Each structure stands twice: as C-alpha cells, then as structure tokens.
Amino acid sequence: MAVQNIFTGENPGLKPFDLSTYTGTKDKNFFTETKVLFEAFELNSTNTEKTYLSDVKNHLSGLGALLGGIVNDLTVACHREGKWGELVQFDKFGNRIDEIRYASEQRELRKIFYDYGVVNLDCHESWKHDFTLAHRMSLAILSNMNGEGGVACPFAMTEGIIHAIRALGTDEQKERFLPMLTSTKSTSHLMAGQYVTERVGGSNVAANRTIATEQKNGTWLLNGEKWYCSNPGDLWVTTAKISGTNVVGLFLVSRYKADGSLNGCRLLRKKEILGSKGKLTVESVYENCEATALGRPSHGLANLIRYILRTSRLHVICGGLGHIARGILEAEAYVSERQAYGKKLAEFPSVKRTLDELKMLQTALTLVAFRSFRLAADEDALELLVVPLMKVIATQYSAVVVKEAIILHGGNGILEDFSVLPRILNDAIINETWEGTHALLAENALRALRRSKVRASLGIYFEKEKTAMRKEIAELAEKILAEVDSLMISEYDRDVNRMYICEKLWRFFALIEVERWLKKYPSQERQAQAKLLQTFVSQNARMPYKI
Q1: How far is Cα 161 from Cα 180, in angstroms, rounded to an integer?
Q2: If we measure between CA atoms, which residue out of 404, 371, 323, 394 comes closest to residue 34?
Q3: CA-CA-CA-CA torsion for 501, 502, 503, 504, nearest 10 degrees?
Q4: Helices within 183-309 (DSSP H only)
Q5: CA distance linking residue 65 with residue 103, whole number of Å
Q6: How far apart are CA 527 and CA 532, in angstroms?
Q7: Is the pLDDT confidence value at 115 over 90?
Q8: What is the mean pLDDT of residues 228-243?
Q9: What confidence tier does 4 reach under pLDDT thresholds 50, 70, 90?
Q10: For a tag site, which of 63, 160, 481, 531 has the least CB within 10 Å?
Q11: Angstrom distance (rounded) from CA 392 to CA 214
C-alpha cells in the first residue's frame, strides 16, 4: 500500500490576510474624527471671547486623543471577566464596611477623566472661560465613545450633585462636600451616586416608601430600601417621604457620618445588569441612615427634577450620541480594510449607502441635541419639549446605529475580543432605560407641547429659522407640524401615537437644524447629507406605524 506524502509546506490557511495588521480605531483622535461635534458646538455658541472657541476645541481634542489611546485600553482591560467591581460587605473581623472595590484600571480611568476636568474644569486655574453646558455635554459625548465604561454614569451623577449643592446647599453642605466633588486635589474621583428607585417603582418617585424623620439637630434619619443604587461611593442624593406625610424630600447622604463612623446604609447585593458593567449598581437598605435635606424638604420632587434628573437626561442624550459616533468610527475603519470578492467592503454600493444613512442620522441627531443644550442653557421654554424628545430619540437610534455597525463587521462584529461594539450595544440598551422609559419621556414631551409657553416658543423658533430655509424644506417642516397638530387634538390619538408623534417632531427639528448647519458650513458632502435627510423624512423611513 502506497504511503501518501505528508504536506510540509506553509499552511495556506495561516498566511497573512487583509486583517492581519488591522488596528481599527486604535490611537485615533475621537474628537477630530467626529467633525460634526465641534461644528454643532460652534453653531450654537454665544460666547464671543476671542480665544474661547479655539480653547474649547483644544480641550476637547486633548480628550479625544486620550480616548483613542490609554482610555480605550484601560476601558477594555477593566471590562474583562474578573475585573468588574466587587461589593465587600464585611472586613476580615466581621465588621460591616459596605465597600465597593474596583480594579486598578477602573480607578485609573476615573482619575484621568476627573483630572481632565470633566466635572470641575471651572476649578482649574488654567481654564479662563465659563465652563458652559455645551462644553460639558461635548465632554460627555466624547466620554461615551468608549461606552459607559464605568465613567459616563458617574460623570453624570457627580455633575448633577454639584449643580444641586451649588444651587440648594447650605453653607455647611458646600463646605463639607464641594471640595470632595470639585477640588483638583480631591481623591474622590467621580464617586457620587443616585439612590431613588425602589421596588415599588422607578419613574413614579411619589410611590417611594422610604421614610425620613427629622431630628432635633436638624439632620434626618432614613429608613427604607432602594432598589437601584447607581455608582455607590462617597456621597449620593436620595429621596424619602417626610414622616407622616406624602411629601417626597430630597436628601444628601454621605457614606460616613459627620463623626467619621459608617453611616446606616447597608449594601445588600450588586445588580447583574446587561451592560454598564464598569460601575456597580446595588440594592441597599437604610437603617437609621443619617442624611441632610438638600433644599427645602417640601420642594424635594421639584428639585430632583430640576437639578438631578435634568442633568442626567442631558447626559443620556450624550450617551446615545457617543455610542453612535463610536459605532460609525468602527464601521468606517473596518469596511475600509476588509475585503470580499476581490474588493474592499467600502466599495460596495450597499455598504456605502448604509454608512451614508448612519452618518446622516449622526449629523441630524447631533445638531438637534446641541440646539437642545442651548435651549437648556438659556432656560428657553422649548427645552421642556426638545430635551425629553431627544432623550427618547437619541437613545433609540444609538442601539440601531451600533447594531448596524456590528452587522457591517460580519461575524467579527459579534466577537467581544475583536470589537468593542457588542459591549457598547449593551450599554446603549441600558442608556435607553436610564432616567425614564420611552413611553414616559414621550408623554413628558407631548405634555410640554400642549403648554402655551412652549407652543409660543416653538412658533418663534420656526418663524425665525424658516426665513433662511429652502422653500421645499420649509414646506416639508410645515407639513410635519400640521400632522402633529392633528394627532394632538384627541387624547386617544395622542396617547396611542406618542412614539409616532415624537419621531415626526425630531425630524421637524432635524430639517431646521441641518439647514442652519448647511448654511454655515456649505460643501458637497454636507449637501448630500441634507438631501439624504430630506429623502429619509419624505419617505417616512424607519417610522413606527400610526394608529
């Protein structure tokens, strides 16, 4: 019997191929790669100081460089199994410590962002301008380009608490807590949290069962439970009903009492959440937990909405935009290198068309979001409509865009050791649910639309902007508004079509804001995006059905 020759040459299946040296987005500057971000910033900036725009641009570019380098590497490292945070309830002697321990990579990440000034740039001697809302939100968008990462949520919560203490805090609260939250010498890096949700409900804060009892010295003791305690750390805001009433108060709680002993907040277990694994979320029980009222207790719910939830919802919009931006960067990098059937994926018309649509959505969403930031900074009544609207829309589209980016990677897109996109998709889903469901936020937006002051502001906005719009775009916007008005008449039509109405409304704003952008930054590429948006809107692409 003849013996077959054994193959001794180079294994053909192991030869170098098109992805052998692929590095994706490594070491890219995420800010300079996302041009529409600063264009949207500049389009809505009202600061006329000589060096303001260039200084902001340099600051954002510095963070963008970190994001494509060490920040990306640390984020990937601390999201490997075994690197997630750990809840330690007792020390080795059996004493209660209720401590959160993070991997060194996660601690370093938080320090990088804190030291860069994402929440406290106005406390850096080197910064000579106002630390504007648009600047803060630009940093938030960039931060989310690595997913939540254990940073984006703490960033939002820390910023919200800073705003609340500055606006509502007593002199004692400001003296005790602001240095920890804002000082350049602080060692508490984005370690402020939010404990509001209870088992009986999240968005319905009035259903809280935790009780706050005032003490003779002016402090309060809290007794109850909290079901979602996001970013447990050194300091947090929480809600509780004033003893003997149905009034919900807003309170500030420190991990340690004023005398240095551990406070009465018992951390029970960490939540096993689909995404956002970089920072822990836990369940807790208050047992005579010492707290101080943040603002007048009778105004607790109003202050929660005005300072805490308002800030968080703006950050949620930024989360959606950051996820979208990273999805597009990853997709563009991959299709420019990957080959199939003798040519690169980017050369296929269907791939190009998909990327064009994703980039058009990114542009439109970013421009409307920055208009919402400007409205919020100006305390324009139209904010009451556009912010909840964009919280719904930006987060919905973020999951859509990231999923499309994954699909463009083929089988490699679902490999977590090949791409960051599976993790970012999970984070995008979490971001959708944070600070209110779509149905609730859509209701908030439509309730705002029915208010006379909001409607008046909307009218002023449209009348001012449409004078500079092309006729066919202005007519398309008017047509959308007329359809929305017809659906707002009946309570039933308004309720069952709330998501349809929100889709129509954001497209109305997108048409206007893209026209402003095109006028300021005219180019063939931008004209093509504007034309694609017009087609997208005219054809009712990706619309929910109307009842």
Answers
A1: 12
A2: 323
A3: 50
A4: 300-303
A5: 23
A6: 9
A7: yes
A8: 94
A9: low
A10: 531
A11: 38
**212 phi and psi, to 5 degrees?**
-110, 125
In this structure, are residues 45 and 53 in contact, taking their beta carbons and an 8 Å threshold?
Answer: yes
Task: Give the per-residue pLDDT at 206.
Answer: 78
Helix (H) or strand (E) holding 392: helix 383-408
State how far the Cα of 404 lies from the Cα of 413, in Å rounded to an integer: 10
**What does the alpha-carbon distance between residue 403 and residue 276 come to, in Å, rounded to a whole number?**
17
What is the token pair recorded at 182? 């804002």
Strands 248-254 and 235-242 come out as antiparallel
E-strand ranges in 168-255 read 192-195, 211-214, 220-230, 235-242, 248-254
Cα–Cα dist 360/15, whole Å: 38
Write the DSSP assignment of 516-539 as a string of letters. Answer: HHHHHS--HHHHHHHHHHHHHHHT
Q: Please list the residues that pair with 240 across neighbouring strands.
A: 249
* CB contact set of 508 (below 8 Å; sequence gap of 6+): 477, 480, 481, 484
User: Which ranges of 169-205 would DSSP assign to H, the alpha helix?
Assistant: 171-182
The tokens of 257 are what? 């009492």
Rounded Cα gap, residues 432 and 231, in angstroms? 18
Check the CA dihedral 424-427-432-434 and report its sign.
negative
- The token duo for 163 is 């705003």
Closest CA to 327 of 258, 389, 406, 253: 406
In the DSSP assignment, the letter for residue 469 is S
Q: Tell me what pLDDT residue 545 has.
A: 85
Tokens coding 25:
């987005």
* Mean per-residue pLDDT of the chain: 95
Angle between helices 349-378 and 498-520 (to 10 degrees): 90
- In this structure, which amino acid lies at residue 390? M
pLDDT of residue 201: 76
